[in-house]
Amino acid sequence: MPKELLIFDCDGVLVDSEIIAEKVLRECLDAWLPDLHAEDELRQALGMTTAAILDKLARRSVHDLPQDALRHIERTIDARLATDLQAIERVAETIEGLGLPLAIVSNSGRQRITISLECTGLSQCLGGVPLFTAEQVERPKPAPDVYQLAARSLECSPQDCLVVEDSVAGVTAAHAAGMTVIGFIGASHIEAGHDRRLEQAGAWHVMADMRELASLVKRWREQRRSVAKE
Q: Tell me, what DSSP letter sits at residue 143?
């Protein structure tokens, strides 16, 4: 069989960070762009980079963002992550039991991911895992660029990659790159109906608990072997 690779998004998949980032963004945007309903706008922007979110909303508002808006938000998020962030429940033991090569592909910056892994203790099992971020490509998720970069860099065909993603943008990106995607809805920011949105974006299966991952990986591998025999 060809080399197989299991790829994790970080925010909302490895760490329960989206709820923290959303709160910071909502607080700032309510103050800076009061003519927009920040909570509704952010719900539609899940998985996008902070810079892309600010650019999108600034064009929709009659108000101007502060010059240092992005820097202020990123520093505030980093500070709250350092004190409040938790790993997704059971993710460490799940990863350790899988026995597959791993990678992380994220729209967050390398520094943010490093902070997240260290303060949750996940760096112990993921510290040496290859990491690819939107900083390395021209177009972030929902474009497939960062997933394509990961596959090229690790010399792995897209069809041999299984991805775990929580956002429509992330599922769209991995699916467009030719990878099989599992949608994850177990983080605390996920709302009712999100499973359907992930399926519509191209998710092969959707899971709500990391304990489901091992059986889905086994099913994916069995399907691949069955196709290879035909």
A: S
Q: Which helix (H) or strand (E) holds 6?
A: strand 5-8
Rounded Cα distance, 137 and 143, in Å: 10
Q: Would you list the DSSP string of 37-55?
A: -HHHHHHHTTTS-HHHHHH
Q: Give the residue from 210, 178, 213, 130 showing the smallest Cα distance to 221.
A: 213
Q: How far apart are CA 209 and CA 91, in angstroms?
A: 9
Q: pTM of the full predicted structure?
A: 0.88
Residues 6+ apart with CB under 8 A from 79: none
Looking at the DSSP bridge assignments, the partners of residue 105 are: 132
Residue carrying structure tokens 């892309």: 52
Mean pLDDT by 10 residues, the chain (230 residues): 86 94 91 88 76 90 94 92 94 91 95 92 92 95 97 96 96 98 95 94 98 96 80
Q: How far apart, in whole angstroms, are the C-alpha atoms of residue 90 and residue 41?
A: 31
**Burial environment of residue 119 by CB neighbours within 10 A (0 to 12, 13 to 18, 19 or more):** middle
44 and 52 Cβ atoms separated by less than 8 Å: no
How would you list the strands of the sheet with 205-207, edge to edge?
A: 131-133, 102-106, 5-8, 161-165, 180-184, 205-207
Residues in the chain: 230
**CA diameter of the chain:** 60
Closest CA to 89 of 168, 204, 12, 171: 12
Kindly give the residue spans of alpha helices, DSSP state H, lying in the chain. Answer: 18-32, 38-44, 50-60, 69-84, 91-96, 110-120, 123-126, 145-153, 168-176, 194-201, 213-229
